[in-house]
Amino acid sequence: MKNCHVVRKKTKLTEQGVIISGTFRYWFSENKHISADKTYLLTYKLGVNRLLLLTGIKEEEANN
User: Fold this and answer.
1) Per-residue model confidence as pLDDT tens digits over 17-46
2) Sheet of 52-59: strands edge to edge?
3) Distance separating alpha carbons of residues 53 and 41, to the nearest angstrom
4) Res 64 pLDDT > 60
5) Could you tell me the residue ranges of all domains in the chain?
């Protein structure tokens, strides 16, 4: 089993979606802890009643 917690450092709105940078901390069932700085582009579309629907998650270069 794996769990994850994110400490968000930066959020940027772009034409393609939202770029989120932060430290991701993972916990595994054997009690190993791993932390990694990562940046992701989250893409979405507008659904019924102005609900945002997540359509994609792509890891980006750290300097974005």
Assistant:
1) 999 999 888 777 666 777 888 999 999 999
2) 2-13, 18-28, 33-46, 52-59
3) 14
4) no
5) 2-59
Residue 17: CB atoms within 10 A of its CB come to 19
Single-letter residue type at 11: T
Buried b (16+ CB within 10 A) or exposed e, 1-13: eeeeeeeeeeeee
Longest dimension (CA), the chain: 43
Amino acid present at 24: F
Neighbours of 35 (CB within 10 A): 10
Which residues is 2 bridged to in the sheet? 28
Do the beta carbons of residue 42 and residue 20 sit within 8 Å? yes
